[in-house]
Amino acid sequence: MSDVNELDRSARWRRLLAELVSTVVLVLTFQGAAYAQGVETVTYSKDVAPILQENCQQCHQEGAIGPFALVDYEDARRAARRIKDRVTQRLMPPWHLNPHLGIQEYKNDRSLTEQEIVTIIDWVDAGTPRGDPADLPAPVEFPSGENFLMLGELGSPDLVIKTDPFDVPAHGNDQWWRPRVATGLTQDRYVRAVEVLPSYPLGRGVTHHFLATAVQEESVGGLLTEWALGKVGEQYQEGTGKLLQAGSEISFEVHYYPNGTPAPADQVSLGIWLYPEGYEPEFPTVLRMFNVAPQSVLEIPPHSTPMYEREWVMQSPVRIQSFQAHFHLRGKGASMEAIYPDGRRELLSIIDNFQFNWHNNYIYEDHVAPLLPSGTVLKFNMWYDNTEDQLSNPHPDDFVTWGDRAADEMGHMWIGVTNLTEDAYLRLVRERARIATEDGGSR
Known about the structure:
Layout: H1 2-36, H2 44-55, H3 73-78, H4 80-88, H5 114-125, H6 151-154, E1 159-162, E2 166-168, E3 175-177, E4 180-182, E5 189-197, H7 202-206, E6 207-215, E7 223-228, E8 233-235, E9 240-244, E10 249-256, E11 263-266, E12 269-274, E13 283-291, E14 299-300, E15 307-313, E16 318-326, E17 331-339, E18 345-351, E19 362-363, E20 371-372, E21 377-384, E22 400-401, E23 412-419, H8 422-438
Parallel strand pairs: 9-13
Antiparallel strand pairs: 1-12, 2-11, 3-10, 4-10, 5-8, 5-9, 5-12, 6-7, 6-10, 13-23, 14-22, 15-21, 16-19, 16-20, 16-23, 17-18, 17-21
Helix pairs in contact: 2-5, 4-5
């Protein structure tokens, strides 16, 4: 009897398998027929062009920093395989945060969604069909590299301060230029936004990074901005700003990197937007540097993947506006974690795909910007890849230490920090809880 049962079960499994195969064949046949008729086919006009327009064309247009244009179908078709490769690896658009861990809501988020990545992959795999031109979105006129990007939102800056001219050679080692320029202010004013604008077009290719520091009696001013390719500037939350005093100067540090084309008498512009005269924001803010792998300890042996970590205790309540990692060619990833006074731990942000060519500043949406009580520990990790697996690494056989050159390394975090009073902290916590309740928990 057992043999019969075994044969019976075997026959049933064979029938089920045959039915399953038949069903799969029918589904595939239907999908193939639908595909051949153009049903549900992903096209450039309807599906891909809006993605490129929203996330890519600002940099990929004539005269912009992208190496090729992506403003029409032929542009995209020629670059289709490269586009697929870059978006699959999350190299483009340049957004290096892990898409699943930590806070995911940022004011300047330019990453693609998983569905957008799938759409591009499907379009390339389908042979880059053009589709109906009537489905194309209306063209967008983007600002060129000649103008500040914040013009559309904030209007013209109240101050534009330029560095003194500097002749950048076509070839040679890294160059540094450190002029001091007067602001021309005759009364104290508070800054609400700053933006860095390298010269157009030559300066954009040779300006590696840039620091602007207010030189004045009041120490609250301090560093106005740190800029590197991929960053625009700083824009502070409502009621938050930095003091710029009458008679102050701006101390610049410009790091140039020759790229084969000379840039004579180059100047970098700093645009400054001010609050109205007499306005004093409730919260002064600072761009604070957390040196995770300082000069005295940073050592990266050949073919190694070291990690450094450091912790700081917040001596008052704080609100974190932004998060940025600064590495050179061997940088791989960085994280910021909050350890609360009650022992609870929260991963705030993690970069797991750092690319040296793009130094992103991740600006939290107001309703998720971390509010941390006094005594919170901010823990930072930064890790490196000095192997052949790191594509930007020129010499994995080198022993690398701290240094200003691109061929050397660094390891620090730029964090936008607003110090709060205890009363202000509790008020902001209550306001955030109220908004979350009114939104029905959607935030």
